[in-house]
Amino acid sequence: MSNAAVPQVDRFFTGTEARYDRWRTLLQQAREWEMSAKQAGAGDANGARVVKSLEDLRQWEDYYAYPGPALLNLLIERATSGEVTGTVRLARTISTAIITHSYRANVGEWDKEEEGLTNLGDRLPVGGEQRAAHRPYFEVLFVSPARPALWRELAQELRKLRRPQDKFVYEPVFVGSFEDAILAVILNGSVEAVVIYDDVPMASQHSNPLLREFLTSYLSATGIEATSLIRGLTLAQALKLIRPELDMYVLSDREVEKTAGSADAACVRRIFYQVEEPLEIHLSILDGIADRYSTPYFDNLQVYAQRPIGTFHALPVARGKSIFKSNWIRDMGEFYGMNLFLAESSATTGGLDSLLEPTGNIKVAQDYAARAFGADHVFFVTNGTSTSNKMVEQALLAPGDIVLVDRNCHKSHHYGAVLTGALPLYVEAYPLTQYSMYGAVPLRTIKKALLDLKAEGKLDRARMLVLTNCTFDGHIYNVERVMEECLAIKPDLIFLWDEAWFGFARWSPFYRRRTAMGAAAILEKKFADPAYRAAYQEQARKLGEDLDPANKKILETRLLANPDKVHMRVYQTNSTHKSMSCLRQGSMVLVKDQDYHTVEEQFHEAVFTHASTSPNLQIIASIDVARRQMELEGYELVNRSMQLALDVRHEVNTHPLVSKYFRVLGADDLIPAEFRNSGFVDYLSPGANWTTAVKALREDEFALDVTRLTLVCGSAGFDGTQFKNLLAAEYDIQLNKTSRNSVLLQTNINNTRSDIAQLMKVLVTISQKIEKRLAQGGSGEREAFAARVRSLMHDVPNLPNFSCFHDSFRENAKSGTSEGDMRTAFFGAYREEQCEHVKLASPEIDKRLKSGPELVSANFVIPYPPGFPIMVPGQVINAETIEFMRKLDVKEIHGYEAGLGLKLLKPSFLSSIKSKGAKNKGAEQKPKPELAHA
Fold first, then answer.
1. Which one, of 522, 521, 518, 488, lies nearest residue 504 by Cα?
2. 620: helix, coil or strand?
3. CB burial of residue 273 (10 Å; 0-12, 13-18, 19+)
4. Are 877 and 922 in contact (CB under 8 A)?
5. Which of 290, 361, 488, 638 has the most crowded CB, counting CB atoms within 10 A?
């Protein structure tokens, strides 16, 4: 790779994949050199190319333990001396070992004495019969100001400390500067711990432009001066910003007692007085890894499964005897294996603990998860995030509370409002009509809703804001800004972030700040900063401490919250099974609520209400294991999934044939320019680099999760459902969501480059079939195809906004805010005599739209796609919604039976609600247009 050529951001979301490519390229160049060398004098140019590639590659390899300086120097020596065959053999050995990770099996084979290097270079680093039982391998970064010539000696001393009883084995990686330490933890996902000496210099020894691009992007977040020697604690804090899961150890020759007692030392696991205790450093490193490796519940379940248990409880499959001794269902046991049944029980004794009231290993496992995700408390849930959402809402909402909620959120939130009796005030996301989907809710809309409530004297009842982050289609909020500006209007507002699809984001330094827990941590630091308090006081002088809803400047101002009044009350739910190695329905509730002690009892009551008394033990164990994996290798796995997603985008959108019929939408397609204030266009746009990408993720109102891939298929003549079924039936490719003219693909930590190759092969095959059909079908076929594409891509129905709740379900119909009592409407539909059905095509629909009485929905109506409720109980159905329903050509519509028609609440029932005095009698006025939130 030439220093002059700076690849775009899409090639370096993961250092590992880029590293594989560099070594494959080098090996290919070496093979070409070998081929050309057979012709007299023809190999010189290829040899020079190999040497140049090795020089460029060398500066990257300094951040990895293998192959190490000795092997790399030998490879360079062979190449520069013109030893073609030896260069090819050694390059192949190293490349294969790196790609297959075989070097991890016997790390003692790497580092022979100089005289043994020739033999070492010609075989893979595998120990054969001497190979010990598997021990997880990792690397430790040592940041030392010592001369590089001493690093080899230090590495040998560390290896001498290894003991047969060590559960893990590690290799050291040495760097000598602050910048090189930053680069090492970015590029090398195998680094799990960092040992830092005091007073390392700032500047990197490397000058590669791409490395400088990395540094520019990340160092801007640290605020560290680039002029002097760096203290160990300062570097530890900077590294924690990038990878908070890493264990930090500081070695200092100063007053280590005072250093250990400072607030800045909170990010460090242990502080040592220089190198007086090398064995203690070694043991501390292993102990830190063991802490993250520990899975309290899973470990105990494995022990339990090996015990001779007599079962006299209500679970015949426990121990598996009813299965393995059966004449008819033994195949089930053969399929799943014995351990599944040995590890089953309905008991909570014998160390298994209770999910409802954990006091043992489940409690410890939840505490470990809280540490991993940056939360104060974590609760495991075994029946999905639908239940997690309802738990939080039941615990925090009461009848009459107002909850601001995205109308396009998951149905569990709508049912949560029914369950609690809270009044939903729907805030609308911006529409993406061409693709029959919605984006996210603009902050301006949310602020206006809160200010309208304040103008009506109801802000005190606004209890919670519920938003989906990221959305199904990949829209990510600027969570920090949303919470900060909302707290400026209502300092004790509770936030529930439904991050069902975004649990993995904690392990991406790009996305972490846009998660609920990541943003809450940032805001906590902000509110404690005297400079922030001063900035707030300046704002208060201009706008006043008590914001006036009539002041139009408030909507246009980037509001700061009063740090003396705010209460950080943040809840996050994630579907652990959606993005981590967890069994289906595994979910978590993450809590960072400074007032949690005031709601703890009711939170536990909500857990008792919704959690099963017979939870699946394997799901609990898999949540525990998923946390372990993410703490130890989540950084590398997540970055790889992001890289694969960018590979899909690039390959589809640049393939000469596939791109004629398919396209993956970019940020510029899914996020209007008004919400991309940084000027960012897309990750694959010309000129996009680390600096522009990081700037956008910090500043823009919305960002796009690259792992959510909206593949437009309407331009190939397929609607989303049709294309999804085609991929599943004929090509064995499964996917999640569809829209009128697109399907949604996603990459996760399970995907590989082989998966991407298979997808591309299938898209090429389908494109070839389209080409053949159009070529052989004549003008009639081409005209029909064009008409089909036009119908799917251009003749799309407008997406309906939420209209309003019927006056019967509003406290005051003259109110300027649109919240409504959905619970009463929902249960009103439980009486058949209070409902009626009217067919969608009936003239009565049009008559009532024009002359009344109003059409009022009795239930939720959710078409798939787009997958959000276009009608909710108690909602007035307007002409816009009817038009959308009539144009729908989807087969799956929950809450609607075409044979019966729309289920409506009868006008007589609506009148009876009024007559009971439950609502403000005689109030007929609709919300004022200037106060509407749609």
1. 518
2. helix
3. middle
4. no
5. 638
